[in-house]
Amino acid sequence: MRRGRNLLREAFFSDPRLGVVVCRQRDQSPIEMHGHEFCEIVIVLGGTGRHFTPQGSRSILAGDVLVVNRKQSHGYGDTQGLDIANILVADEVMRDAEVALGSMPGYHALFTMEAVRRSSGAGDAHIHLRSDELAWVENLVESMEAEGRRPDDGGGAMIRVWFLLLVGFLARRYQPRDEKRPGLDARIGTVLARIDRHPEHPVSLGELARGAGMSERSFLRSFKEATALSPVDYVLRARVRKAERLLVAAQPRQSITEIAFTCGFNDSNYFSRVFRRFALCSPRDFRAARRGLLR
C-alpha cells in the first residue's frame, strides 16, 4: 500500500479549546497509508480489517488498540464492518500527559519506547482488550465524544480528564510483544519515571544504571535503544517539559529566570538554548503562544 497524504492539524483541531478530538468511523472503508501532525489512538470497537504500516500489515478485530504516533504512516484494507474510534491528540496534550503519567513505567513502555521501536521498523504498538475492558473503554470514548460537543461548557477541560484516564488505563494494560523485553522495559521504564518525577534533581549515570540494575555500558546502550536519546538529553528534555508547564501556569507566575532555576538550570541563557532545542522556540515565545491559546 503506497503512502498517501499527510493530515494537517488545522483540519481537525479548528477549535483551540479542544486538544483531543474523537472521530468515530462506524464502517471504516479501506484507506491508503497516510501520516498526520498529531498522535492517534485507534480503538477497534467492532468488525475486522487489516492495518498497514510501512513495515507490513496485520489483521485487526474488536478489542484491538493501536497507537500511531505523530508522523507515522498507516492505513486500512480488507475492512468488513470495521467500527473504530480515532482519538486525535494534539502535541501539547501529549506533553501534558507525559507530565501527569510519566511516573508510570507502562506509560513510557507504550508511548516512549514503543515509539522508537516503530520508527526503527518494529511496527505499531498493540494492545488487545477483553470484552469487559472494551465495553468500559467504549463508554469512556462516548463520554469524550459528548464533551467535545460542549466546548462552551467546559468540554475542553473534561475531555482531557477522560483522555488521561484512558491513557493511564492503557499504560497499565500494555504488555510488550517480545517476551524477552518485559524485564528490560520495566527497568528502563522505572528509570524514565524517576527522571520525570523530579527532572530538576542532579543525577549521575552511575545512579541511573544502578537504578536499572545494569552496568553503565549496558545501561547506556539500552537507554539509547529505548528512547533514541542519551540519558543527559532525556534529563534535559524532561526539564524543558517541566518548564513548559510552569511557563503557562497562572499561579504562581514565575519569571523565566526563576523557572530556569526551578527546573535545574543554573544559567538562564543556557536554559533558553536548551529550551529552544527541544521546544523549537524561546521560553518567552512559548509562554505567549500558549497563553494566547488558553484565552
UniProtKB/TrEMBL annotation:
GO MF annotations in UniProt: DNA-binding transcription factor activity; sequence-specific DNA binding
Domain HTH araC/xylS-type: 189-289
SUPFAM superfamilies referenced in this protein's UniProt entry, alphabetically: Homeodomain-like, Regulatory protein AraC
Pfam families per the UniProt record, alphabetical: AraC_binding (PF02311), HTH_18 (PF12833)
Entries under InterPro entries matching the protein: AraC-bd (IPR003313), AraC_XylS_family_regulators (IPR050204), Homeodomain-like_sf (IPR009057), HTH-like (IPR037923), HTH_AraC (IPR018060), RmlC-like_jellyroll (IPR014710), Tscrpt_reg_AraC-type_HTH (IPR020449)
Alphabetically ordered keywords of this record: DNA-binding, Transcription, Transcription regulation
Domain of life: Bacteria
Protein name: AraC family transcriptional regulator
Highest classification ranks of the organism: Bacteria, Pseudomonadati, Verrucomicrobiota, Terrimicrobiia, Terrimicrobiales
